[in-house]
Amino acid sequence: MTEQPEQQRHSFERGTDGPKVIVAGVDGSPSSLRAAAYASGLARRQNALLALVYVQPLVPAGAALGAPVAGTTEEIAEELIAEIRQAAERVKGIFEVRWEFHTFRGDPYNGLVTAADELTADAVVVGASESAGHRFVGSVAVRLVKAGRWPVTVVP
Asked: Where is the composition biased (Basic and acidic residues) (predicted)?
C-alpha cells in the first residue's frame, strides 16, 4: 500500500458534493429567525445537517451587579430550542430537516467561528444586524465574510 502525500490525506473537505453541515446563528431576533428559516431550506434541499447555534454572551465580573444574567441567557437558549421544536413539528411529514441545537459562550463572532470550526461547517448563515452602531464597528456578518473561511449568507 502506498502512502498518500500529506495534501491528499484530508479527513475533511469543504463543499465537495454540496454542504454537509450548515451553521445558522440564532439569537431570537427577527433577522436571526429568518436566517434560520433560510438555512433550513438550504439544509433540506442539500440533505445537509442544520446546526443552529446560539452564542451566550459572557458577562464581565461585576458587570451584572448581582443580576442573574447567566440564568437569563440560559432561558433564551431554552426558549429558542422550544420555538425551533415547535416549528419542526409543524412541518413534520412535509419538510424533513436534520437539525441540532448548540450553545457556545463568548461574543457572537468568536462563538460562531468556534461553532463553525468544531462542527466542520460548509456554510454559515446569519441575520443582518439590526443595530445602527454596527455601521461603525462592523457587524458579525461582515466579520465572518472577512474571515473568508466559509461561504457566508446574510439574510435581511
From this structure: 1-17
Whether 73 is covered by a domain: the verdict is yes
Q: What is the CATH number of the domain that holds 121?
A: 3.40.50.620
pLDDT digits (tens, 9 = 90+) for 70-127: 556 677 777 877 777 776 676 666 677 888 889 888 889 999 999 999 999 999 999 9
Contact 119, 102 (CB under 8 A): yes
| 133 CB-contact burial (10 Å; exposed 0-12 / middle 13-18 / buried 19+) | exposed
12, part of any domain: no
What is the span of the domain harbouring residue 46? Answer: 17-155
What total of structural domains would you count in the chain? 1
Tell me the residue type at 61. A
Asked whether residue 25 is domain-assigned, the answer is: yes
Whole-model pTM over 0.70: yes
Dihedral of alpha carbons 93, 94, 95, 101, sign: negative
Q: Is 99 exposed, middle or buried (0-12, 13-18, 19+ CB in 10 A)?
A: buried
